């Protein structure tokens, strides 16, 4: 099997719209949460989120950097975030000037969990109130989930596999794992892979709140995302995108590319249990991690850092921790496990990719990011280093990234320095 | 420049993201301003909203330049 390495990174997050800014803010223990500014939250049970900040903010996002004015007008936010993160990644990898032959072998697999919900909601009102002939001709292709991959392929002339994963909150991790396999199977030499989300809109917040998934700690947004803490009450919705450049190892080496890490393990499983609740024994999570370890040829004691799914929901955190505990056995004493969702919220379809990038940076810098707000860990947390409050310098040889989604879909990635 | 022409040009600049100087009366939406057929559908809808006119499909198909749009609107607005 061909080896697959990461040679480029791109991030748009509530704590920064480039990799180094977001990472520095994560390590500094900042929170991206606040009251929702995007719309009037009157009547909403949840009024807080981790929004990507506007361009004039200290670590805001300027869509004009990489996304055409015309495209910005036509598409939903998740596509804008995705195009920008993909642009950052391909620039970082130094692959913006590939030859025609190289571009035939370069593809895109950037997904989303929800896609263009804000635009679907607003345009349905246009159709209802003004009539079908007032619906925008750009409505459909401005909302479809595979249109990040489509837009990115057009912008950079990438003519290899063009794909888009849709597996709720596992999307980003599945996208990277699947794209790595496309390279391993010789379908491509280069893949832009990741996930994006932009669903902070009245319908998105209301829908997740009605499903009892969101924190309603509206009076203290920065304290609301508190994975593994006794007082957690749900997740805080985030938005943004994470995209990596995956490249066949010899291809990267031959052109002298900067290699961040190698994708050495990928596991996938289904809970086959419930649409929103995780399996009560965490069986899906366990088997996903177990498969990734087997593929990587590693033992639990070889893993130094786990970026947990850890969304801050009462049930999910507990079950993931239980699954990790069973899989790791005694090795759990030496691993560090944290949830960066405590800082940037839950990016849904973007989460797995953004968190994979944090894992890669943990490998690069030999430091693990903190779990914020972990003031009173749950009883089940005893004996596990959940990196409370402050980032921690430590040896990081290999990292495991977990993502689990509605529908009972699970993905785990393992990466290691080359 | 007529008031209609000013308003038409403003809509074109906003929708197509082109520089105002490029939006001359002779400019072709497709050849000079980078529009595709869907952009023209959207522009026609925007003209209809702005000027309260109805531009039927057969008339919309004949609108190729900025001048075509201005002339149609001036001849048909209430």
TrEMBL record, chain A:
Enzyme class (EC, first level): transferase
Alphabetically ordered keywords of this record: Acyltransferase, Cell inner membrane, Cell membrane, Fatty acid biosynthesis, Fatty acid metabolism, Lipid biosynthesis, Lipid metabolism, Membrane, Nodulation, Transferase, Transmembrane, Transmembrane helix
Superkingdom of origin organism: Bacteria
Record's catalysed reaction(s): (9Z)-hexadecenoyl-[ACP] + malonyl-[ACP] + H(+) = 3-oxo-(11Z)-octadecenoyl-[ACP] + holo-[ACP] + CO2; a fatty acyl-[ACP] + malonyl-[ACP] + H(+) = a 3-oxoacyl-[ACP] + holo-[ACP] + CO2
Gene Ontology molecular function terms on file: 3-oxoacyl-[acyl-carrier-protein] synthase activity
Segments forming domain Ketosynthase family 3 (KS3): 1-417
Pfam families linked to this entry: ketoacyl-synt, Ketoacyl-synt_C
EC number, UniProt record: 2.3.1.179
Compartments, as annotated in UniProt: Cell inner membrane
Pathway given in the UniProt record: Lipid metabolism; fatty acid biosynthesis
Gene Ontology terms describing biological process: fatty acid biosynthetic process
SUPFAM superfamilies: Thiolase-like
Active site residues of this protein: 169
One cellular-component annotation, GO: plasma membrane
Similarity-based family: Belongs to the thiolase-like superfamily. Beta-ketoacyl-ACP synthases family.
Function in brief: Proposed to synthesize NOD factor fatty acyl chain. Involved in the synthesis of a highly unsaturated fatty acid moiety, which forms part of a lipo-oligosaccharide that is responsible for host specificity. Involved in the type II fatty acid elongation cycle. Catalyzes the elongation of a wide range of acyl-ACP by the addition of two carbons from malonyl-ACP to an acyl acceptor. Can efficiently catalyze the conversion of palmitoleoyl-ACP (cis-hexadec-9-enoyl-ACP) to cis-vaccenoyl-ACP (cis-octadec-11-enoyl-ACP), an essential step in the thermal regulation of fatty acid composition.
PANTHER family given in the database record: 3-OXOACYL-[ACYL-CARRIER-PROTEIN] SYNTHASE, POLYKETIDE SYNTHASE-RELATED
NCBIfam families referenced in this protein's UniProt entry, alphabetically: fabF (TIGR03150), PRK06333.1 (NF004970), PRK07314.1 (NF005589)
Name of the protein in question: 3-oxoacyl-[acyl-carrier-protein] synthase 2
Provenance organism: Alterirhizorhabdus solaris
Gene: fabF
From TrEMBL, chain B:
Entry comment on modification after translation: 4'-phosphopantetheine is transferred from CoA to a specific serine of apo-ACP by acpS.
GO cellular component, one term: cytosol
Positions bearing O-(pantetheine 4'-phosphoryl)serine: 37
One annotated GO molecular function: phosphopantetheine binding
UniProt pathway: Glycolipid biosynthesis; KDO(2)-lipid A biosynthesis; Lipid metabolism; fatty acid biosynthesis
UniProt keywords, alphabetically: Cytoplasm, Fatty acid biosynthesis, Fatty acid metabolism, Lipid biosynthesis, Lipid metabolism, Phosphopantetheine, Phosphoprotein
Pfam families in alphabetical order: PP-binding
Major localisation: cytoplasm
Source species, domain of life: Bacteria
Gene Ontology biological process: Kdo2-lipid A biosynthetic process; lipid A biosynthetic process
Its biological purpose: Carrier of the growing fatty acid chain in fatty acid biosynthesis.
NCBIfam families to which the protein is assigned, alphabetical: acyl_carrier, PRK00982.1-2, PRK00982.1-3, PRK00982.1-4, PRK00982.1-5
Family: Belongs to the acyl carrier protein (ACP) family.
Protein name, as recorded: Acyl carrier protein
Species assigned in the record: Alterirhizorhabdus solaris
Gene behind the chain: acpP
């Amino acid at each position: 099997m061909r080896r697959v390495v990461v040679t480029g990174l791109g991030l748009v997050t509530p704590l920064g719209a480039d990799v180094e800014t977001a990472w520095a803010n994560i390590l500094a223990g900042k929170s991206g949460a606040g009251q929702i500014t995007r719309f009037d939250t009157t009547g909403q049970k949840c009024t807080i989120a981790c929004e990507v900040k506007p361009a004039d903010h200290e670590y805001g996002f300027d869509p004009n950097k990489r996304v055409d004015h015309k495209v910005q007008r036509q598409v939903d936010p998740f596509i804008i975030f995705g195009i920008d993160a993909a642009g950052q990644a391909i620039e970082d990898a130094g692959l913006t000037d590939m030859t025609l032959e190289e571009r035939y072998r370069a593809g895109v697999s950037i997904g989303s969990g929800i896609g263009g919900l804000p635009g679907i909601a607003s345009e349905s009102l246009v159709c209802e109130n003004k009539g079908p002939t007032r619906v925008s001709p750009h409505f459909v292709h401005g909302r479809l989930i595979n249109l990040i991959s489509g837009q990115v392929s057009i912008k950079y002339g990438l003519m290899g596999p063009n794909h888009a994963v849709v597996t709720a909150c596992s999307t980003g991790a599945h996208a990277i794992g699947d794209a790595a396999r496309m390279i391993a199977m010789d379908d491509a030499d280069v893949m832009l892979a990741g996930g994006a989300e932009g669903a902070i809109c009245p319908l998105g917040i209301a829908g997740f709140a009605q499903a009892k998934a969101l924190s309603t700690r509206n009076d203290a947004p920065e304290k609301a995302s508190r994975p593994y803490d006794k007082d957690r009450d749900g997740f805080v919705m985030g938005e943004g995108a994470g995209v990596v450049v995956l490249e066949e190892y010899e291809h990267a080496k031959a052109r002298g590319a900067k290699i961040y890490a190698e994708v050495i393990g990928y596991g996938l499983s289904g809970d086959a249990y419930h649409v929103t609740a995780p399996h009560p024994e965490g069986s899906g999570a366990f088997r996903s991690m177990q498969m990734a370890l087997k593929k990587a040829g590693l033992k639990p004691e070889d893993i130094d850092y786990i970026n947990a799914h850890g969304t801050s929901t009462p049930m999910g955190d507990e079950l993931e921790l239980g699954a990790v505990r069973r899989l790791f056995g005694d090795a759990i004493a030496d691993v560090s496990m944290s949830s960066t969702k405590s800082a940037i919220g839950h990016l849904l379809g973007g989460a797995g990719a953004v968190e994979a990038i944090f894992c890669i940076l943990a490998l690069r810098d030999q430091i693990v990011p903190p779990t914020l707000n972990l003031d009173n860990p749950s009883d089940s947390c005893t004996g596990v280093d959940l990196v409370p409050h402050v980032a921690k310098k430590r040896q990081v040889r290999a990292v495991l990234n977990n993502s689990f989604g509605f529908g009972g879909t699970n993905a785990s990635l393992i990466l290691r320095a080359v | 420049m007529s008031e209609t022409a000013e308003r038409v040009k403003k809509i074109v600049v906003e929708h197509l993201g082109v520089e105002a100087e490029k939006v001359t009366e002779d400019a072709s939406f497709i050849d000079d301003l980078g529009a595709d057929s869907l952009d023209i559908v959207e522009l026609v809808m925007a003209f209809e909203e702005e000027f309260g006119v109805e531009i039927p499909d057969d008339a919309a198909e004949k609108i190729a330049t900025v001048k075509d749009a201005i002339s149609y609107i001036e001849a048909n607005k209430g």
